[in-house]
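Let us practice reading a record.
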Amino acid sequence: MSGKEDTETLWTKRGLTLRRHFVSSTENMRKKALNSPGYDAARLFRWGQMMALAVVRVMDAAERSFGKEAQKVLSEALVELGRDIGREVLEGFHLEPGVSEIEAISAFITYVNEEIWASPEVPQIIDERRCACDVLWCPHQDHYRAFDCRVQRYIVQGLLEALEERTGMRVDARFTQLIPKGAPTCRFEAWKLGPGEERQWTSYSGELEKRALERAKSRG
């Protein structure tokens, strides 16, 4: 495999190697869209934004019309999507010698932010169990209400489950600030879970689900 092919199919940063997701369709897009004279790549942003808002509106409408059962079906579908993408990415999982688990977790989060969410970030290792990052810009920040960010949580849940499945690393995470709430960055913190510890990320999603149903009921 040539260096060019390595770059197109594999992602390597800070001692971690992963397989890029959607490799063949990405190449198809480059050939048939980006190479087309006059094609504006910002169109991809506008299209993606529309689809992201579609997910929010579908979730809101389903909760309002069908309640908890519909919410469960849709949230499980999003978790499954995250799990599938995570499994694809982790097919290429490789750690260079000497890279610690928390360094690997931090680099994995960088892939999630930069390659899945198209968001520039500044990573930080806090200690041997914890890492963090500041997301400098999110594609949804000018269109999502802060509460809308909950729909992305399910995809992240699937990604964390895939990471544990492939590597045995059990990771929990939280946002401590959000751009849609007026913060300068989205602050994301992650840490290694010990044996028997529950993932707070998932339990907090459950709390947001209850709030969403209450909001839907109040709107009638």
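A brief commentary: The first strand starts at residue 10 and ends at 13.
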